[in-house]
């Protein structure tokens, strides 16, 4: 089994030679191999299970499940916000956790959102990005999908700190992890169908979307504008700001520019 | 007497509104009106969600006039745009438009049951290039921002890029387009776009679930 594993790995690495050289994706050949593997697993298992889940389980119940796991995640979203120096956001995350765990009956109702305390999106990969760690090479991880070297380390920390991992007995933990995965995949069914329809080369489209998305998330939706390739059209003056310089100044500059 | 005055006032207001609509809406109002109108039409007509052609027709009619497809294609092509001749530019724009409308139709059908939040425009009245922010609210998840980049031209405000969750649609096509142009030229790109569009037509009208 292990031999088979290394044989596959070698074959994939050999495929690297044919990569056509996007500087952000030096391991393209290898990544495409893993991508293909993931697609196969997805088509064979994840997508059918997620589709069945969506079709058989009422949205009312699916949304409770979604809220339950979303509530647990708010704990470390708060930690990440504090690590990034965003005190108010971090306090809001923990307030959400407090309200939803109690009044929201262990999180199955998102009462905090109804109260106007908005959910945030943070993880350790974003925290590292905020601290100035660059993306590093793009990676496609087995099963987990799109990542970068930095986000790979981030994901490892996310998994290590994941409260669901502490669920006991083990059988309960495994069921919870599986249920959460199925729910996440079910929520992505529409998105993955749109991807199928939109992309000429799904691998490239997904990679570029992932890198853009992460950049946006790291800057909480206000990334410094990248230089546009000008076509003699007067589209917006490009604002060049060094990425990961002083993030707060960058955000401020961005706001000022938008006004 | 008073009723006549009221009627006159009403008529005057109607004229004023009518002319304002005919002339120019603020970009954020335009986005809001179009989005709400289209979403409402989809919600009212259950058949439309299963019938892709009908959905595309709706988008052709209501949404397309507000997009600058030539600008979008030029931006997505990047440097390769200037290598194309007039005929190629026209065909590229046509094919890209078809692809985008299809994608947009799918996205709209998927989002149509969500709540939209329209954010106030942060721009000076003299600005000719603005970003209109819309958010899709969903329980248990962070709202998804949809940002429309719009430019004011002779024909009014037109969208030249859409960003969903921070991902620019136009920028996302750039690598794909450039790769294809490098490998098989402008005509190769036209060919692969039209092949992509034809696979939809072959796949039938109903979106697969």
Write structural notes for this entry.
The complex is a heterodimer of chains A (259) and B (209). By secondary structure, chain A is mainly alpha-helical. Chain A contains eleven helices and two strands, in the order H-H-H-H-H-H-E-E-H-H-H-H-H. Chain A has a two-stranded antiparallel ribbon with strand order 1-2. In chain A, helix 1 (2-15) packs across helix 2, helix 2 (28-56) crosses helix 8 (170-187) and helix 3 (59-83) crosses helix 8 (170-187). With 209 residues, chain B is α+β, with helices and mostly antiparallel strands. In chain B, helix 2 (27-44) runs antiparallel to helix 4 and helix 5 packs across helix 6. Chain B is globular, with a radius of gyration of 20 Å. Mean pLDDT of chain B is 83; it is low at 16-22 and 205-209. Chains A and B meet through helix 3, helix 9 and helix 10 of A and helix 5, helix 6, strand 3, strand 5 and helix 7 of B.
Provide the gyration radius of chain B in Å: 20 Å
What integer is the average pLDDT of chain A? 83
Strand arrangement across the biggest beta sheet of chain A: 1-2
Q: Uncertain runs of chain A with pLDDT below 50, 5 residues or more?
A: 1-5, 7-14, 228-259
Discrete helix count of chain B: 7
Share of residues in strands of chain A: under 5%
Oligomer: heterodimer
Largest sheet of chain A: 2 strands, antiparallel
Helix proportion of chain A: 55-70%
Based on CA inertia axes, which overall geometry of chain A fits?
globular
Put simply, the count of helices of chain A is 11
Order of strands across the widest beta sheet of chain B? Answer: 1-2-3-4-5
Compute the gyration radius of chain A: what is it? 20 Å
Provide mean pLDDT of chain B, rounded.
Answer: 83
Q: Please give the share of residues in helix of chain B.
A: 55-70%
**Largest interface between protein chains, with number of residues from each side:** A-B, 45 and 46 residues
Number of strands of chain B: 5
Structural class of chain A: mainly alpha
Q: What is the end-to-end distance of chain A?
A: 60 Å
Count of individual beta strands of chain A: 2
| Main sheet overview of chain B | 5 strands, antiparallel
């Amino acid at each position: 089994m292990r031999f088979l594993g290394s044989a596959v790995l070698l074959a994939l690495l050999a495929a690297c030679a044919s990569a056509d050289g996007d500087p952000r994706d030096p391991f393209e050949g290898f990544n495409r191999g893993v991508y293909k593997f993931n697609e196969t697993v997805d088509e064979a298992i994840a997508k059918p299970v997620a589709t069945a889940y969506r079709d058989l389980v009422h949205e009312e119940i699916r949304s409770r499940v979604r809220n339950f796991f979303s509530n647990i995640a708010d704990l470390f979203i708060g930690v990440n916000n504090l690590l990034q120096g965003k005190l108010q956001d971090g306090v809001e995350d923990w307030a959400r956790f407090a309200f939803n765990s109690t009044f929201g009956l262990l999180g199955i109702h998102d009462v905090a959102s109804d109260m106007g305390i908005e959910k945030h999106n943070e993880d350790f990969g974003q925290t590292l990005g905020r601290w100035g760690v660059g993306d590093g090479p793009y990676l496609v991880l087995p099963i987990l999908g799109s990542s970068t070297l930095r986000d790979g380390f981030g994901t490892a920390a996310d998994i290590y700190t994941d409260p669901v991992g502490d669920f006991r007995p083990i059988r309960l933990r495994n069921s919870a992890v599986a249920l959460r995965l199925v729910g996440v995949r079910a929520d992505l069914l529409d998105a993955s169908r749109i991807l199928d329809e939109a992309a000429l080369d799904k691998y490239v489209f997904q990679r570029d979307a992932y890198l853009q998305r992460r950049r946006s998330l790291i800057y909480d939706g206000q990334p410094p504008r990248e230089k546009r390739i000008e076509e003699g059209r007067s589209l917006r003056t490009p604002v060049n700001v060094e990425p990961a310089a002083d993030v707060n100044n960058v955000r401020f500059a961005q706001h000022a520019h938008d006004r | 007497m008073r009723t006549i005055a009221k009627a006159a006032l009403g008529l005057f207001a109607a004229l004023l509104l009518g002319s304002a609509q005919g002339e120019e809406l603020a970009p954020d109002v335009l986005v809001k009106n179009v989005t709400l109108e289209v979403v409402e039409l989809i919600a009212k007509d259950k058949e439309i969600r299963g019938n892709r052609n009908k959905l595309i027709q709706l988008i052709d009619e209501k949404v397309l006039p507000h997009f600058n497809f030539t600008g979008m294609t030029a931006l997505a092509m990047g440097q390769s745009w200037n290598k194309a001749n007039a005929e190629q530019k026209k065909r590229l724009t046509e094919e890209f438009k078809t692809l985008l409308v299809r994608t947009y139709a799918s996205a709209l059908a998927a989002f149509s049951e969500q709540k939209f939040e329209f954010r106030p425009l942060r721009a000076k009245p003299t600005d000719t290039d603005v970003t209109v922010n819309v958010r899709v609210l969903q329980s248990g998840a962070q709202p998804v921002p949809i940002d429309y980049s719009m430019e004011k031209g002779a024909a009014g405000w037109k969208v030249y890029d859409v960003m969903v969750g921070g991902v620019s649609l136009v920028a996302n096509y750039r690598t794909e387009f450039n790769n294809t142009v490098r490998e098989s030229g402008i005509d190769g790109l036209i060919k692969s776009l039209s092949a992509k569009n034809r696979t939809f037509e072959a796949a039938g009208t109903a979106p697969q679930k």
